């Protein structure tokens, strides 16, 4: 089981959550900025259901996750971070984590209101969530979180993406049962949250569905794109909390949860790129080679604490072995320039939660 540390914003005065990530969610018909709701005009109404995760409904192409960083400069502190946090390895072999499930709700689904700690606001949203029948959460076969893990609930509906940390419905069905969440986040898929400006993303210091407060579903490796040998986005990875900076993060992260030495370990939001000099042909399958090419072009973001994994959907094992890239070492990567280090302990989350 993965483990992670996560802390609420200092302004909330809450005890740190120690586990995986804090969830997200939301529902109804409006965008996080109060815009009129409904399905995106370019996005057909998806049928209700659950699959490993293919979606054409992710963020605008200008978003940072789709940027080609092949020629981006290396971070000035990379050598120190590598020597102090990664010279001994990732912590386990480079591998893919097929734990995540992506759910799709059509417009007929009646949203349900999850119960969460009132102290989660303003970091977390408090909107009803359209839970489609037949779906499931991370690490489970339905909607009930029995493992005590992250239990991320990921749901697309039209122009919205709902992401919940520890989303759970007793009995495991979309209707009936008690619906709870440790934190929910509502993303408006028509909006590029990561353009320079204030507030950045959902707000500096704000908690979210994972410790970095970055979207999860758009960064997952998915079966269809691996099979097509065409991966056009950055990925996300998790790593041991002891290797993660406990004070500073870099954008696009706005939150953290590590326990490592400041400025010597990996900041939340760090973007790792597979070196251009790495010979992709040394990987034995075209699917593994496709993942490696994407790592050279788009990289992977450090988004959460736990064992070392690159996050993926449950069905990727149909097309790739989870250890197909096991030969990749930290020395094969470099951290691209992360920009300004932001002291998490000096941030207060200030935002208006999405409530409908």
Report on this structure.
The chain is mostly beta strands and 356 residues long. Helices cover 7% and strands 20% of the residues. The longest helix is centred in the C-terminal third of the chain and has 12 residues. The chain has a six-stranded mixed sheet with strand order 4-16-11-15-14-17, with helices on one face. A five-stranded mixed sheet has the order 3-5-6-7-10, with no helix packed on it. A three-stranded mixed sheet has the order 13-12-18. A hairpin with a 2-residue loop joins β6 and β7. The chain has one domain.
Brief account:
With 356 residues, this protein is mainly beta.
Estimate what percentage of residues fall within beta strands: 15-25%
Determine the structural class based on helices, strands and strand pairing.
mainly beta
Helix content: under 10%
Average pLDDT over all residues: 87
Counted by DSSP, the helix tally is: 3
Question: In whole angstroms, how far apart are the ends?
Answer: 34 Å
């Amino acid at each position: 089981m993965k483990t992670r540390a996560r802390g609420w914003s200092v302004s909330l005065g809450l005890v740190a959550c120690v586990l995986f990530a804090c969830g997200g969610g939301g529902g109804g018909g409006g965008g996080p900025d109060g815009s009129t709701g409904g399905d995106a005009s370019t996005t057909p109404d998806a049928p209700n259901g659950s699959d490993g995760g293919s979606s054409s409904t992710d963020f605008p192409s200008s978003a940072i996750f789709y940027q080609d960083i092949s020629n981006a400069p290396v971070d000035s502190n990379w050598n120190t971070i590598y020597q102090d946090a990664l010279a001994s390895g990732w912590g386990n072999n480079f591998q893919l984590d097929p734990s995540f499930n992506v759910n799709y709700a059509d417009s007929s689904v009646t949203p349900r209101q999850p119960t969460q700690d009132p102290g989660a606001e303003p970091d977390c949203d408090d909107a009803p969530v359209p839970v489609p029948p037949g779906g499931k959460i991370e690490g489970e076969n339905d909607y009930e979180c029995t493992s005590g893990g992250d239990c991320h609930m990921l749901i697309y509906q039209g122009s919205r993406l709902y992401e919940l940390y520890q989303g759970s419905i007793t009995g495991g069905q979309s209707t009936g049962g008690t619906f709870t969440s440790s934190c929910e986040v509502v993303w408006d898929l028509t909006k590029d949250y990561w353009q320079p400006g204030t507030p950045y993303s959902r707000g500096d210091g704000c908690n979210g569905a994972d410790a970095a407060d970055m979207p999860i579903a758009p960064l997952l490796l998915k079966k269809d794109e691996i099979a097509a040998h065409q991966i056009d986005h950055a990925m996300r990875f998790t790593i041991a909390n002891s290797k993660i900076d406990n004070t500073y993060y870099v954008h696009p992260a706005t939150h953290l949860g590590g326990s490592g030495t400041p400025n010597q370990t990996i900041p939340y939001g760090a973007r790792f790129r597979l070196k251009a000099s790495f010979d992709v042909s040394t990987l034995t399958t075209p699917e593994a080679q496709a993942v490696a090419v994407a790592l050279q072009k788009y990289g992977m973001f450090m988004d959460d604490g736990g064992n070392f994994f690159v996050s993926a959907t449950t069905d990727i094992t149909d097309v790739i072995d989870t250890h197909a890239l096991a030969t990749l070492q930290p020395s094969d990567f470099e951290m691209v320039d992360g920009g300004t280090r932001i002291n998490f302990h000096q941030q207060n989350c200030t935002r208006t939660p999405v409530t409908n």
